[in-house]
Amino acid sequence: MYRRLILTAVGMITVIVVLVATTGKCSCSCSHEEEVKEAPKKVEIAALGSRLTNEMSSFDGIERMDRDVREFMQYWHLKGMQLSVMRNDSLLFSKGYGNADTLVAMTPGHILRVASVSKLITAVGIMKLQEEGKLKLGDRVFAEGGILADKPYTESIKDPNYYRITVEDLLRHRAGFHAGASDPLFSTLTIIQQNHLAAPPTADELLTILLRKSLPGEPGVTKDYSNVGYLILSLIIEEVSGMSYEDYIRYSVLYPAGCFGFRIARNYYNERHPGEVRYYLTKDDKPVEEFNGSGRMVDRCYGGNDITSLSGAGAWVASSADLARFVASIDGRDGVHDILSRESVRKMTEHLGEETYSIGWNETDPEKGWLRTGTLSGTSAFIKYFPDGECWVMITNTSTWKGPRFPHVSKGTSELYDKLRSKYSSRLPHQDFFTKLPHGIPASIARLLD
Question: What's the pTM value of the predicted model, to 2 decimals?
Answer without folding.
Answer: 0.89
